[in-house]
Amino acid sequence: METESLREKFAALGHTGAAEPEEADLVVVNTCSVTEKADRDCIAFLRKTAAANPKAALAVTGCLATLDPRKILAAAPGATIFTNKEKEEIPASFCGGPATPGDFFSVAKSHGRARAFVKVQDGCNLKCAYCLVNLARSELRSKPLDSAADEIKKLIASGFAEIVLCGTRLGIYRCKTTGASLAGLMKRLFAIEGGFRLRFSSIESGELTPELLRVLKGAGPKFCDYFHLPLQAGSDAVLKAMGRLYTTADYRTKVGELRSIFPGVGIYADIIAGYPEETEEDFNAAVEFVRGCALSGLHVFSFSARPGTRAAALKPLPQKTVSARSAALRALDGELRAAYAASMLGKKTSVLVLKNKDGRAQALASNFVNIELPGPLKPGRLLDCRVTAARSGVCLAEAL
Ligand code: SF4
């Protein structure tokens, strides 16, 4: 959504986006540094872009540019670097016009998507052993309540029926002006009129406070039946080594609490495969734990050491162990998604149409299960349907 926001700021200054980097006068690259592979991909993209269009000015920002500008300049010597803090100054630096430092990224439209993503929080002050975020984005910032509400109201008025609220650590949202927490923000957003639903991209399980859960429950269908709770490891020993602030028991309790408040809710998790200190016993415990929680699906990341983190100083597991654990967790993810989709058979659900393919509409249920319906149907439309079949984690349904 930062990229969308930059695009809008350039448009406001009278510029239009080029179809390809080769046709642009200015190329802005927003880099990621979440894994070593992400670093490599960014560098390869920069080299390719700089070679394909040497006449274009090149602005590089994002986490990799903030953490390792030398790496960027080695790949693209003519690039101008903007750290994450300076990102908002890019349009004014190249096109003139008012600089907007401190202006939290906002997006009035979300280009080419059925769902809109709105970032309301940035930064994290925790120090998980494998994570670079606390080095690249340690400053905590939250979008003021009024700006967030105005922006989302505009998105809804322009036709978006699902808004995904994002943040590096959404649960610590705090409006500086009003002191509102995430619960306060949600209360305000749910009061907006119209047929729409809100979803959290991801939230730490410990940050789902009783007050927040009360507000979410009170919103009914305006809040998606969905939580993405980062787990990262399924054994207490590895959670502790990672510096995570919860135990498996805490996580299991939160999952149970969510299911008692939101029956049938989709609960998904991130998990890291092959963390350096994870023994075979830890890994088996993790698989058992995930099965025991009957999660709805996993996002599996293979561990790769990020230079500068505590985990990078640990002896890595052999690559074949990392790959085998990653494959086992991905297979488990397939099983979980299939079981969760099957549990929806005969049930009514609300879906958002994403696109059409081969005469069928592809949609996303409130609980994040992929749904196929007879189509074509208008993308971006919310509708109720009943699930008639489930195959490999995808449900077939008919509109009601
Ligand atoms: S909570 Fe998330 S963003 Fe913060 S340090 Fe841990 S992994 Fe990184």
Descriptive labels:
single chain, Transcription Regulator spoIIAA, five-stranded mixed β-barrel, 13 helices, globular, binds iron/sulfur cluster
Question: What's the topology here?
Answer:
Layout: H1 2-12, E1 26-31, H2 36-52, E2 57-62, H3 63-67, H4 69-75, E3 80-81, H5 90-95, E4 115-122, H6 133-136, E5 141-142, H7 145-157, E6 162-167, H8 182-190, E7 197-200, H9 210-218, E8 226-228, H10 236-242, H11 248-261, E9 266-273, H12 280-293, E10 297-302, H13 319-342, E11 348-357, E12 360-365, E13 370-374, E14 382-391, E15 394-399
Parallel strand pairs: 1-2, 2-3, 4-6, 6-7, 8-9, 9-10, 13-15
Antiparallel strand pairs: 4-5, 11-12, 11-14, 12-13, 14-15
The structure holds iron/sulfur cluster (SF4).
Iron/sulfur cluster binds next to helix 6.
How would you explain this protein's 3D organization?
This protein is of the alpha/beta class. The protein folds into four domains: 2-95, no CATH class; 104-224, Transcription Regulator spoIIAA; 226-343, 2-Layer Sandwich (Transcription Regulator spoIIAA), CATH 3.30.750.200; 348-399, Beta Barrel (OB fold (Dihydrolipoamide Acetyltransferase, E2P)), CATH 2.40.50. Helix content is 35%, strand content 22%. The protein contains 13 helices and 15 strands. The chain has helices at 2-12, 36-52, 63-67, 69-75, 90-95, 133-136, 145-157, 182-190, 210-218, 236-242, 248-261, 280-293, 319-342, and strands at residues 26-31, 57-62, 80-81, 115-122, 141-142, 162-167, 197-200, 226-228, 266-273, 297-302, 348-357, 360-365, 370-374, 382-391, 394-399. The strands form four sheets. The protein has a five-stranded mixed β-barrel with strand order 11-12-13-15-14. Strand 9, helix 12 and strand 10 (297-302) form a beta-alpha-beta unit. Helix 7 (145-157) packs parallel to helix 8 and helix 8 packs parallel to helix 9 (210-218). The longest helix is centred in the last third of the chain and has 24 residues, at 319-342. The protein is globular and about 60 Å long. The mean pLDDT is 89. It binds iron/sulfur cluster. Iron/sulfur cluster is lined by residues 124, 126, 128, 131, 133-134, 168-169.
